[in-house]
Here is the input.
Amino acid sequence: MSHDLRRAASATARVAALARGVFMRSVAVAALALVGALPLQAQEKAQEKTQDAAAAPIKVAFIDQLSGPLANVGQIFQANLKFALDDANAQGGVLGRNYALVSYDNKLSAQESLIALQSAIDAGVHVVFTGASGSPVVTALVEAVNRHNERNPGQRVLIMNYASLDPDLTGTRCSFWHFATEANTAMKMRALANFAREQKGMHKVYLLNQDYTQGRIWAALGRQMIAGARPDVQFVGEALHPLARVKDFAPYMSRIKESGADTVVTGNWGQELGLLIKAGGEAGYELNYLNHSGGGAPGTVLAVSQAKNAHLTWVAEYLPNGDDPVLAALAARVRQTPAGEYFAPRVLIAVQMLSAAMRHANSDDPTRIAFALEGMQYRSPVGDVLMRKSDHQLLLPQVVSTIAPVDGKTVKVGVEGTQYGFRLDSTTAGADLNLPSVCRMKRPAGT
Here is the structure.
């Protein structure tokens, strides 16, 4: 090979080597660039996931009866809960997110309620609203949530109880995961006993109640607290009847009439309160009824108006047809919703306090919400309320009223298409219902 050819071949080799080097460096640079981009992409995906979670609705569940003989009671509370959540969403939601409601029909059954609870948990719910089905159902739910939260600390659940009145739920069975926004039976009976102290026409009392935990407690508290307020009163009889099964109260009314009672202390609610009043009317027997919350149930005012000789006195957190403009406006808005004939302020208060707790905790984590709710003082539509830290029982005013004919003075508005409404008898402040508690709160480990 000539000298010129060897020089050309050597130059060609150097160019090829240089080209290979440039190519390898380019590949390496590209590889490094790709490696550097991977964490950035992962970060972007993580940020997108966080943003999606932040924008996702806050799911809450309703578990109560929507079918069966007491379905209308559950439907009223469902309508009030929907109203309260919609109201919160209309004001911007909480933590930049809206509430989303998932409803379950428990058919007035504890077993069905537990099935619904598991479905709610599987759907990502962390807050359950319940209470209208009675204390056995709420007790079963609270006990199930206690077990679930202990086993699943990353998937905890809160119970917001707007209707079950059993003092044991904030007493011997109290739970860190349960909050009661309705006054319990002891608080309600205390308000009624204060009312009874001034009722000179009360002499003989008969106790007639549904045969379940709440009914038996109402009877026992009635005997105890009314006797304390009126030691001159005579208790002339007592009976329990099956829950949600009696269609005709004529036999029970016959026994009441034979006893000579002028007053019946009854915790009956829903259809069974209306049927009891109807039986008294048909018997031509004038009676006073002392009840915890049934005056606000559908059909009760109508039953009183038809009986004509019934006087039902009951307890709630406000006077349904009162003059307060804020409450009147809220009640009017609720009535415009499906099944929203009756306004239950305590449901709205439950949602408002839940939202306030989330904002305070800056989180929708149930544990942090629970701590934020404990001891919370809140200015509600019915006045100042306090969530007692010791047992998670809300202290709120209790208003005693009697269903009476419209007279233009004490009763200005009729309800249920009748000329009967609610007459204010007395108001007891929540602070005056701060009764002793036997709760021994067990808080989550590590807090």
